């Protein structure tokens, strides 16, 4: 290495020293100064955001009692709604309870339950949504009373879907000979009724 250095002219030595100095500056800048500046900017950003985060956390801590009261109120409301849930330990027993409730309401209003189909239970948070699809025949006022009865039932029931078909024979259309007399039911409705149960 010394031989190589001796063979270089004064100008070449100056160029080598200048090149090494430039490389040294780049190494120092990118290996030491840049990480230091980035770390310093990160620390500065943390120091600026920490007081805001602390103030936010203090606000939450100040609302602790209000949140606890709200939670207790929500628990009380849930417990008051508990008797309105469908009974039964399994979805099939809960579906049976729903079926009995709706059929009792239909019988009370004088409507006729033509078909009933239990739908697959769905998860709804910490509850199971139990569904029932029914086809019911009856007169207009009976059907209206049935829908009102379902919505005001002591159980927490909802009508998800309703389709209504009329069985009225338009005036002016004669009844075909030999056809049976039109039934007293003049509406046919398809209902999807659901209730909630503990899973």
The residue-averaged pLDDT reads 83
Number of strands: 5
Structural class: alpha+beta
N-to-C SSE series?
Answer: HHHHEEEHEE
Whole-number radius of gyration? 40 Å
SS summary, helix count: 5
Number of domains: 2
Uncertain parts: none
Task: Determine the fraction of residues in helical runs and give it as a percent range.
Answer: 40-55%
Give the CATH class of the largest domain. Answer: Alpha Beta
Query: What does the main sheet amount to?
Result: 5 strands, antiparallel
Shape: elongated
Question: Which architecture name of the largest domain does CATH use?
Answer: 2-Layer Sandwich
Per CATH, what is the topology of the largest domain? Alpha-Beta Plaits
**Name of the CATH superfamily of the largest domain:** Ribosomal protein S6/Translation elongation factor EF1B
Amino-to-carboxy terminus distance:
83 Å
Strand portion: 15-25%
């Amino acid at each position: 290495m010394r031989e190589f250095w001796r063979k270089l002219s004064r100008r070449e030595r100056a160029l080598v020293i200048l090149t090494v100095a430039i490389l040294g500056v780049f190494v120092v800048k990118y290996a030491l100064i840049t990480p230091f500046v980035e770390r310093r900017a990160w620390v500065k950003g943390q120091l600026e955001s920490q007081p805001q985060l602390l103030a936010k956390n203090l606000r939450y801590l100040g609302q602790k009692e209000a949140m606890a009261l709200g939670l207790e109120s929500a628990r009380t409301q849930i417990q008051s709604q508990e008797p309105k849930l469908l009974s039964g330990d399994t979805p099939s027993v809960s579906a049976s309870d729903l079926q009995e409730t709706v059929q009792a309401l239909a019988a009370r209003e004088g409507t006729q339950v033509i078909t009933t189909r239990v739908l697959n239970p769905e998860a709804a948070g910490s509850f199971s949504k139990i569904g029932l699809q029914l086809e019911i025949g009856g007169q207009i006022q009976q059907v209206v009373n049935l829908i009102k009865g379902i919505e005001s039932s002591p159980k927490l029931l909802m009508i998800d879907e309703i389709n209504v078909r009329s069985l009225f024979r338009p005036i002016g259309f004669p009844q075909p000979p030999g056809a049976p007399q039109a039934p007293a039911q003049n509406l046919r409705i398809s209902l999807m009724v659901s209730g909630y149960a503990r899973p």
